Amino acid sequence: MQINQEIQKKIASEWFRFLQIEICKKFQNLERIFSKRKKLKPKYFKKNEWKKRNINNGGGTYYLLENGRVFDKVGVNHSTVKGIFPKKFKSSIPGTKKNNSYWASGISVVAHMKNPCIPSMHFNTRFVVTSKSWFGGGMDVTPSLKDLKEKKLLHKELKVLCDNNKKNYKSYKKWCDKYFYITHRKEVRGIGGIFFDYLFEDWTQNFKFTRELGISFLNISENIIEKKIFSSWTKKQKEDQLIKRGRYVEFNLLYDRGTKFGLNTGGNLDAIFMSLPPKAKWK
Question: Helices then strands (H, E): number in the chain?
Fold first, then answer.
């Protein structure tokens, strides 16, 4: 039985809100565990809310933890918004040929770690409605140090997720590698992950896949962090991390579709740019 679209919107938005809280709980607990062992005072997430200029068009909430013991900076953003796409932007969005109005809800997470042995991690999922409706999203990992076991674990877990949901892992992996390619550098951003968009059909099955990707992100990120949370590092490794972050900045400002979507739909600038690391270097 097909679920009414307004109910679909409500269910999707509530899931993204629930997942946001669960991710914050998990990451805050990691911050506490490390701080307790090191006899340090933990840092905490701060809640920030924002509204679009026309408050009837929605807004969002983002939680930000900065200069932590485990996280240099981690942001967890959820928003539910609606409005009208600018004419110059709508041509790239499905279902806007005759009507450029939209509704969108989603969650995005970017974690930049204090310890350079632990990679940066990114995750997002969304549900977008124009005259068409679809799910999109993905997760990827960006280390500054090579770890083949970590890469193997990541892709093993994502393949199981895709196989269990009858999704094409190879296609989504390839899409991720292509999407996160830094053209002017002629290099990929990290070790990849999966990326997908325009899941138009079978709302129930696609929503299940979207939910399970969120759960997989929770499990994968916790696993990666816990394995290295107490690892020591060198000044050279920290320097390499800062240079790698420079690539992260370049991609997000020049190519990232989420950044462009936010800027073209009147999003909150602090929430849009929360993905940027607190420090980076170039050479």
Answer: 8, 9
